Amino acid sequence: MKNYMCFIVLYCLLLTVQSQGVLGQWKTVDDETGAHKCIVDIYEENGKIFGKVIEILEPFDKNTLCQNCEGDKKDKPILGMVIINELEKQDEYYKNGTIFDAENGKEYKCRIKLMEDTGKLQVRGYISFLYLTQYWIRHQ
């Protein structure tokens, strides 16, 4: 009976994690150092997925402005900036939207996917066949 109860509890926890999907808060990872850079809130609006920077983590400057940006993002705070725009669900991916890199001020096509085996979020930015993939960690 005890083993049966443990199985039910574990099964319920697994369902809870899976049902969260890509939505929620995620820690981004610096490509060079592996340090956590910021927390991005992935949310749904009008059937599309967006991501907004809600916290900048130490040792990075919390008041950083987007100096390499152009247009309406030029010299605006990175904190509060929407960096993932208009992703649509297609099979196990969310794609056909963009991701914005505030470090270089460029926007890339974007595809994200929840990695079921690790619980990490695979985030891929790309131009044509050139791409960069990061794995973000769910923020508790």
UniProtKB/TrEMBL annotation:
It comes from Algibacter pectinivorans. Keywords: Signal. It comes from the Bacteria. This is Uncharacterized conserved protein, DUF2147 family. Residues 1-24 form the signal peptide. Residues 24-138 form the DUF2147 domain. InterPro entries: DUF2147 (IPR019223).
